[in-house]
Amino acid sequence: MSGLRRWIGGLIIPRVQLPVVNPKRNASNKGRIISQKRPLLPKQVWPIRALLELAGYLRDLALFNVAIDSKLRGCDLVKLAVVDLVKDDHIRERVSVTQCKTKKPVQFELTENTRETVIALVRSPELLCCRFMFSSRFHDRPHISTRQYDRLVRDWVTSIGLEPTGYGTHSIRRTKAAEIYRPAWMHGTFINAACGMLTSILRKTQKMRIGSFLMPKPKTQALRRHMLALPMYLI
């Protein structure tokens, strides 16, 4: 009797194979680079530093230098307070912060060039009565957002002729670590490459746009003197 019921049920409710429906909406990441972001090379770090310094962007220069030395995530970098880096009008030699993602403390050291930039930013009028190192220009935000930091990174890599889709905030975080594991024989070639790369960029146009600032083209010899005056470390 049970077998008859199953046979009758199979006739009443036949098994139907539904057709496969292909989605009409395209993927949101179609045509985008979704792999790991590439780190910056020393020959790319130096032109960005020089352009920010020549443009007078003190906050962005300090942000770029601290981001490379600290190797912090963007969410931790933008929330750095003045007391985290400065103590009694002196820059801390070793900084310790608690990461937002892992809730674990991490320590890092700042190079001499970064310490000079940070102390100049702390003494500037734009940082008076500010709690955070990288304050936002909007009154309702105490510090810059991670999205604004990502836009700044894209402007930096675009200013030296790189494709912005291949770089991001994680590129800045990976820069120093990648340099540590790079072979030592490659370091000497990056100094001349940095000078040549920055010179070729500034030769293309009489004015170069960095964010919303128009910077006049400096002379080539003055640019080379500026590059040679930089500290003799790569990162």
What is this structure's SSE topology?
Blueprint: H1 2-12, H2 42-55, H3 58-70, H4 74-77, H5 82-85, E1 86-87, E2 90-91, E3 94-98, E4 105-109, H6 112-122, H7 146-159, H8 169-180, H9 189-204, E5 207-210, E6 213-216, H10 220-228
Antiparallel strand pairs: 1-2, 3-4, 5-6
Helix pairs in contact: 2-9, 3-6, 3-8, 9-10
Question: Could you characterize the architecture of this molecule?
Answer:
The chain is mainly alpha-helical. It has a single domain (42-228), classed as Intergrase catalytic core (hpI Integrase, Chain A). It is 46% helix and 9% strand. The chain contains 10 helices and 6 strands; from the N terminus they run H-H-H-H-H-E-E-E-E-H-H-H-H-E-E-H. The chain has helices at 2-12, 42-55, 58-70, 74-77, 82-85, 112-122, 146-159, 169-180, 189-204, 220-228, and strands at 86-87, 90-91, 94-98, 105-109, 207-210, 213-216. The protein has a two-stranded antiparallel sheet with strand order 1-2. It has a two-stranded antiparallel ribbon with strand order 3-4. A two-stranded antiparallel ribbon has the order 5-6. It is globular.
SS-derived structural category? mainly alpha
Kindly give the count of domains: 1
CATH architecture: Orthogonal Bundle
Helix percentage: 40-55%
CATH class, named: Mainly Alpha
Q: What separation lies between the terminal Cα atoms?
A: 83 Å
Task: Report strand %.
Answer: 5-15%
Oligomeric nature of the chains:
single chain
**Sequence of secondary-structure elements:** HHHHHEEEEHHHHEEH
CATH superfamily: Intergrase catalytic core
Largest sheet: 2 strands, antiparallel
Average pLDDT works out at 76
- Which parts are unreliable, with pLDDT below 50 for 5 consecutive residues or more? 1-5, 205-220, 222-235
